[in-house]
Amino acid sequence: xxxxxxxxxxxxxxxxxxxxxxxxxxxxxxxxxxxxxxxxxxxxxxxxxxxxxxxxxxxxxxxxxxxxxxxxxxxxxxxxxxxxxxxxxxxxxxxxxxxxxxxxxxxxxxxxxxxxxxxxxxxxxxxxxxxxxxxxxxxxxxxxxxxxxxxxxxxxxxxxxxxxxxxxxxxxxxxxxxxxxxxxxxxxxxxxxxxxxxxxxxxxxxxxxxxxxxxxxxxxxxxxxxxxxxxxxxxxxxxxxxxxxxxxxxxxxxxxxxxxxxxxxxxxxxxxxxxxxxxxxxxxxxxxxxxxxxxxxxxxxxxxxxxxxxxxxxxxxxxxxxxxxxxxxxxxxxxxxxxxxxxxxxxxxxxxxxxxxxxxxxxxxxxxxxxxxxxxxxxxxxxxxxxxxxxxxxxxxxxxxxxxxxxxxxxxxxxxxxxxxxxxxxxxxxx
Length: 431
Fold this sequence. Notes:
- The longest helix is centred in the middle third of the chain and has 19 residues, at 274-292.
- This protein is of the alpha+beta class.
- The strands form three sheets. Strands 7-11-8-10-9 form a five-stranded mixed beta sheet, sandwiched between helices.
- Helices cover 45% and strands 16% of the residues.
- The chain has helices spanning 8-20, 62-71, 84-90, 115-127, 133-150, 154-166, 180-184, 188-198, 216-226, 274-292, 300-306, 331-346, 355-369, 372-384, 391-400, 404-414, and strands at 42-48, 74-77, 80-83, 94-99, 104-110, 205-209, 247-252, 259-265, 307-314, 317-325, 419-424.
């Protein structure tokens, strides 16, 4: 594994201090503020079974190509012909289309009274995507640019290595956007066939956060009518055998700072173990911060890109990702401290009250779920598992009830055998 791990005793001392230390209050200057009215925004996500698991291995990148073609399909709005994403923007909305392991997610946001119109514009494009030679050539060019851009992002490189190593099948183990070679050889016929077979009415799953304006249901019906009936057929792909032992993946990018990401299997958001995992993630983030020893007052966004803990789904498997970059010091030492902490928690050696730690975990979770896309994702998973009520409120209440015994049980079950991705940069700190 990695060299120069932080000592167990050092981590234990920091962890004990963090558990017992009060949270620091931030002083705020007293300035008068005028209360402004906030207009509500409705967020809609439409999921279809057109993700990576529906790609034949010989057509790597086809799911991303079709998503791009749909986003750039011309539609008429206010007498103008504009690409779909530009047309939505001109009507006061926002459109994003993301390809995931098991689905494509079409995300649409706008003011409630504008949503029926925005969804109708979307339905128009979905009824007749642009598969012309000009459109496919432009989409290929955009994918090639995105592939090149991701090769210069240490976080993207690390998480992509992890995703591919965790894949259960050959098609999921292929690059998300394809390779330069595969993308250049995708044809119009392949793009058209993938859309026809996998953008199907029977697979539509809708999630809405916000006000449901009159006319929205009728507009959503137009989306369904725009697609062929039935469901997306599955694609045969060889199964991959997963090794339970710790695995270290490594690549080199001399122009980047080193990034190390340790990935642990994590419970689903609907699992009874999920709240305890959130508390442990909060503790690990604080360990990373204390081990880094950075001065106070640094930009929070910069720090969040440099080290932390994130809950993600990779290759359809929930994961807790601990990460650290050479931009803030020695990532091998930071990650080493977090790995030592995971062992300490699992052995039941974390003592003291965890009330303040739980309070911070609640704050972290509430802040994350204030992002509409995160809330849409949580709501979708919760509903798929048969849950009712508000998943955010239920999770916050469950975090408040987490005990030290819960932390030890969950750490022992999940925080073992990490897969570690190392993007070795010019600083030499990932060896």
